[in-house]
Structures are given as C-alpha cells and as structure tokens.
Amino acid sequence: MEIVVCAKQVPDTESFIKVGPDGKSIDTTGIKWVLNFFDESGVEEALRIKEKVGGTITVLSVGPQRTVEALRQGMAMGADKSILVDDPTAEGSDPAGIAKILAAVIKGIPHDIIFCGFRTTDDESSQVGLMLAEQLGIPHLPPAIKLEISGDQKAVKVESGVEGGMLTLEAPLPAVITVGRGLNEPRMASLPGIMKAKKKPIDTKKLADLGIDPATVGAAAAKVKIQNMTLPPERKAGQIIEGASVQEKAAKLAQLFKEEVKIL
Amino acid sequence: MAKDVWVVAEQRAGEIKKITFEVLTEARRLADQLGEQMCAVLLGSGIGGLANTLAHYGANKVFVADDPNLEKYTADAYTPIVADLVKTHEPSILLMGATSQSKDLSSKLAAKLDIGLANDCVEFNLQDGVLVAKRPVYGMKAFLEVVCETRPQMATCRPGVFKAAPPDESKTAEVVNVDVKLDPAALKTKVLDMTLTGKMDVTEADIIVSGGMGMGTPRVEGFSKDKPAENFYILENLAELLGGTTGCTRLVADAGWRPGSEHIGLTGKQVAPTLYIACGISGAIQHLAGIAASKYVAAVNIDPEAPIFKRADWGIVGDLFKVVPALTEEVKKVKG
Ligand SMILES: Cc1cc2nc3c(=O)[nH]c(=O)nc-3n(C[C@H](O)[C@H](O)[C@H](O)COP(=O)(O)OP(=O)(O)OC[C@H]3O[C@@H](n4cnc5c(N)ncnc54)[C@H](O)[C@@H]3O)c2cc1C
Ligand SMILES: Nc1ncnc2c1ncn2[C@@H]1O[C@H](COP(=O)(O)O)[C@@H](O)[C@H]1O
Questions:
Q1: Are B107 and A130 inside 8 Å of each other by CB?
Q2: Each residue's pLDDT tens digit, A161-190
Q3: Is B148 in the same domain as B259?
C-alpha cells in the first residue's frame, strides 16, 4: 500500500498570537512549530495500515525550510520518507494553491491512500484535502473516526460523524481520506525512531520541478484575499458568585440565567 | 453580471436543519442591502414540500432538485447539480452552513468552479457591494477579514452565530424544479449506512452543559468513582431542563466517558451557544478555542485558580457534584 500523508507545520496550539507587521498574518517571533495535530494522526493511521498490510509511507509538505523538523517528526514516528516543496513563490497560497501543489507532487508518485487532516490549527480552512481529491479526480472520504481497508485492498470504508448521527461510507482506492477527531492516539516517537529519522530521505522540490506555473499559486494568485488580521477584544474579568451556601450560589446563578441570559 | 444572494439549504430525513434558517436570515439581510433577490437551493428525495418553509425565512425563489439518488448527501451527486445551477444563474454570493455536509460540498464546489471559499465565518459586511467575511483562525485567537476575488463569493457560516429571524408564513417563493441527470458511474463514494442518534448536536444547541475530567473524581457519596460515565446524568438532567444538550472536553471523549461527537475545542467541535456551562473543566486554551463564540459562559470548578474562570462570565467555586444538582433544583424553582 502506497500511503501519502499531507502534513503542515503549524504554531504550537499554546502559542501567544500577535499580529505581524503586515497586519495580515501573525508575528512569528518566538513561535514554537509543531506538526499539525490531525496530520500527526494521519501518520499514525498510515503506520497502522502499513503494520497490517505492508507498504511505504511518504510525508508530504509545502512549507519553508523549518518544515523539515515536522517531516522528521513524522519519520521518527515511522514514516519512510518525505517530500518538501520549499519555494518562496508558494508562500501565501490559499487552500486551492496548496492543493494544486500537493496534487502535482502526488501525480508523480505511486499512491493508494492519501491522508489529509480535517483542518489545520492555524488557518483552520478545512479545505485542502477536499480540493486535493477534486484536483486528482479521485474520491474523498469525510473526516474518518474509524477506517477499514477491504480484504482485497481495493476499497476503503470509513465511519464519519454528521450533526446528530453517523455515516458509514465506502470508496474505491486511490482515495483521499480526511482524518477526523479520535481516529487514533498518535504514538510518541521513540529514541531509536528519532535516530533513524535523521537518515531517512527528504526530497526537496521547487515549483519548477513540478511544472507548476508560478503565476497560478502563492499570495498573488489567491482567490481569497486577506484584508486584515485582528485580535479578539479583551474580555472583562468574570464574576465569582459568592454566597453562604451552595444553594445560595446556585440560586443566584439560576437568577442570572433568567435575567441576563433570558432563557428561563 | 453576477447578482443575487444564494443559499444551499440543508435537510436531513426530510427536515430542514436549523443552520439553514440562520443562513437564510443572514442572506436575506445581505440581499436587502444589495437590493437583490435571495434564492435557495434544496436537494434531496421527496422534499418538494419543504420549499415553502424556505420562503418563510425570506427566499424569493427556491430551486428544488428532487431525486431518489439525492436522498443522502454525497459530494459526487450534489456537487455537479449545484455547480450547474451556479454556472447558469451566476449568483453573486453563495452561502451555506459550516456543517460537515456543507463544508464538504463547498470545498468541492470551490475546486470544481475554480472559485474561492471562506469557511466558518462569524460576520459579513458589504463594502461597495463586495462581501467581506470575517473568520476565526488560530483557535479563535485571531480573526481574518477576507474577500473572495471570484464569483460567486462563497462562504460558510458557523452554526449558532447568525440568529434565525422568526418565520413569516405569509411569504411565498417561486419554485423552480431542477432537472436531475445523474451519471451513476460518477457516484464513486457510497453511503452504506446512516444512523441518526436523535440527540441534539452541540453545534445546534442554544445551551450546552459540558463536563471535563472533574466528572471522574467524585468526592460526594452516591457518585461512581469506577464508572465516571455514569456521573454525567447530572449534566444531562440540567441540559434537558434548560432545553439544551451536553458536551465535553477532549480528555473526556478520549477516555470514552462521552461520545466523540460531544468533544468541543480546537480539535473537536466549535460551538456558539447562548449559554455554555462548564463543569469540572480547567479551561485549557485548546478547549476555549471551541467555546469562544459562546454568548455567556458559566463555570463550576473546585479550584479557584482554574483558567476557565478567566473566560467565564459567572463562576461558582465548588464541588460540581454538589453545585450541579443544586443548580438544577434552583433552575426548576425559577422556571416554576
Ligand atoms: C494539539 C492539542 C489539541 C487539543 N484539543 C483539545 C480540544 O479540542 N478540546 C479540549 O477540550 N482539549 C483539547 N486539548 C487538551 C487540553 O490541552 C486539555 O488537556 C483539556 O482540555 C483538559 O480537559 P479537562 O478540563 O476536562 O481536564 P483537566 O485539565 O484535568 O481539568 C479538570 C478540572 O476539573 C476540576 N475538578 C476536579 N474535580 C472537581 C469537582 N469535584 N468539582 C468541580 N471541579 C472539579 C479541576 O479543578 C480541574 O480544573 C488539546 C491539546 C493539544 C495539545
Ligand atoms: N502546506 C501544506 N503542506 C502539506 N499539507 C497541507 C498543507 N496545508 C494543508 N495541508 C493538508 O490539508 C489539511 C487541511 O488543511 P486546511 O485546509 O488548511 O485546514 C491539513 O491537515 C494537511 O493534511
């Protein structure tokens, strides 16, 4: 089974966010970069499939040089190799641009399963995987919380949540599978894993290597233009409800539900 | 020239989803400001009768695609139908809910029509007739204002953020039946099964009573230490009394105390209820990312230093196993 895991390096979710000098993106000073949560989960799922049926796992990312660290993390968990598209022209691409670059790479390599995260914890656009499937002209399966490869390895079945219910879907391979919440618990990289990852290959590519017209990706080609980035307004501190007893405090809160929230 | 504001409606098992009323209300507002029409697109099987309901929420025209193959949503079936309608009629704005189904559809449409998409928007403004969409990023720690350069300007609306106006049953709409021609060979992804739990989803709830790991260590007689899942009935009772539903933190879902569908936060569902009641939840930044759009937050925590109290409008410092039952009683009294 040839498995490609699309992975993005994002700021650690604990990061303090400040608006950068361009007013449209964050100030990246002091940011700790990590592998996007859902992509880590994608690597884990790929490993589980490989453990069952064998295969090769490639971690694929579009990003600047620092992204190597995220790729190494994926390989330390057990992925076999990585591809990094590092090209300044790709910077500021919108999801369609990223999907286009990912599609160009994937078209050139063997692929049965492509994992994409449900969403990134930075841009939160939750579009790239779906657009990638459309660009590759292959099926897409919605955020999987359970996954099963068919016995003949020609199809995949997933369970996916919808508001107020659950879907079971099936599609022939190759397919793009979106990684949903709780699909698995990603393993920690072991020390030998980390050592081995240092020797695993990272193939770095430029847009020209992929035959992509630079005018069709990057910030200038983005169909969704960012006007500005703002921070949420400062919240005033909440009020701790005082009272002589639990009952008294509870009664005060219930009263607030009636008078302020107006739900009772 | 592109004109009119369109909404892709969402129905499941013959019932229009609440989010659709929210989107229609916002679309009506934008259409009025632009002096244009507001049109809805409805897909499904045996759903023609629902067009009236969309009219009550302000749709001037409803395109109905009714076909047995559209009974359950699949991108393969829905995308080409909506794409064709968009190409023929060239709406200026195309809105839908940021639900699992419509986020799927909108991304596929974006790729197929080669247009932009802004997901999970919480506010729209018009600047010289152009739609400016505001969307949260970095777990609600920042917002982007974005403009779609392509037509239609497509965006999805975060559930709960745009409040639905009351329906006006005197309103009617022109109904246009869409000729559905599906190529069965193009339907690659199959829905094998759909089970509905019947439980209100956290993204659709106006009130959420949510539990964290504090639910697992009762210090009060009568609660289970070994089976923490059983303790959640106190949250369910309160939620039911308030007409809401229950939610939880990631740790609780991961522990299997609650279903994953209730997991709220950066890596779970992002909610926007009128009232969020956090019980035994510390208030980690990743959890707050999911509840930042709540109108009011109340918190119960035994630790006065818990970060949740910084986000909460009101807090009670105390043991949730005492406070939640007492609160339930007091709510009953106020309700009378
Ligand atoms: C990449 C990443 C993504 C994440 N995504 C999410 C996410 O989407 N959603 C999410 O929730 N978390 C997420 N987390 C986890 C998050 O960091 C926290 O670990 C988690 O939210 C804590 O859950 P909790 O509040 O239930 O538990 P704890 O932090 O253990 O808090 C339990 C609280 O209960 C209180 N308590 C204990 N007993 C009682 C009692 N009897 N009465 C009253 N109070 C009591 C304690 O004082 C404590 O404050 C993520 C973490 C990472 C790294
Ligand atoms: N720059 C990138 N490089 C590789 N994969 C990406 C990149 N951006 C997004 N993805 C993939 O697409 C998923 C969804 O991202 P997004 O649409 O930005 O929320 C991520 O979880 C990744 O799997």
A1: yes
A2: 999 999 999 999 999 999 999 999 999 999
A3: no
**B198 CA: distance to closest CA in chain A (Å):** 6
pLDDT, tens digit, for every residue of B191-221?
Answer: 999 999 889 999 999 999 999 999 998 999 9
**How many domains is chain B partitioned into structurally?**
2
Give this complex's ipTM.
0.95
Tell me which residues of chain A have a pLDDT lower than 50. Answer: none
Are residues B122 and B35 part of one domain?
yes
What is the domain range of residue B55?
A: 5-186
Interface of B with A in 242-271 (CB under 8 A): 242-243, 250, 253-254, 260-261, 263, 266-268
Cα(B128) to ligand 2 centroid in Å equals 33
CA B67 to chain CA centroid, nearest Å: 26
| B100 reaches A (C-beta below 8 A) | yes
Determine if ligand 2 sits within 6 Å of the CB of residue A116. Answer: yes
Residue of B nearest to A142 (CA): B104
Q: Could you give the CA distance from residue B226 to residue B257 in angstroms, rounded to a whole number?
A: 11
Nearest CA in chain A to B189: A171
Burial class (CB in 10 A: 0-12, 13-18, 19+), B304: exposed
pLDDT tens-digit profile of B223-277? 999 999 999 999 999 999 999 999 999 999 999 999 999 999 999 999 999 999 9
pLDDT at B230: 97
Asked whether residue B104 is domain-assigned, the answer is yes
Cα B166 to Cα B293: distance, rounded to the nearest angstrom: 22
Interchain pair A172, B188: CB under 8 A: yes
At A234 the pLDDT is: 87
Residue A37 Cβ inside 6 Å of ligand 1? The answer reads yes
Cβ partners under 8 Å of residue B227, min gap 6: none
Question: Token digits for B272?
Answer: 């926007």
- Whether residues B166 and B44 fall in one domain: yes
Q: How many CB atoms lie within 10 A of CB A77?
A: 24
Residue B312 belongs to a domain with what CATH number?
3.40.50.1220
- Chain B environment of A225 (Cβ under 8 Å): 146-149
- Residue of chain A whose alpha carbon sits nearest to that of B336: A264
User: Contact at 8 Å (CB) between A237 and B304?
Assistant: no
Ligand 1 pocket, B319 CB below 6 A?
yes
Cα A189 off chain centre by: 19
Q: What is the pLDDT of residues A226-262, one digit of tens each?
A: 999 999 998 888 999 999 999 999 999 999 999 999 9
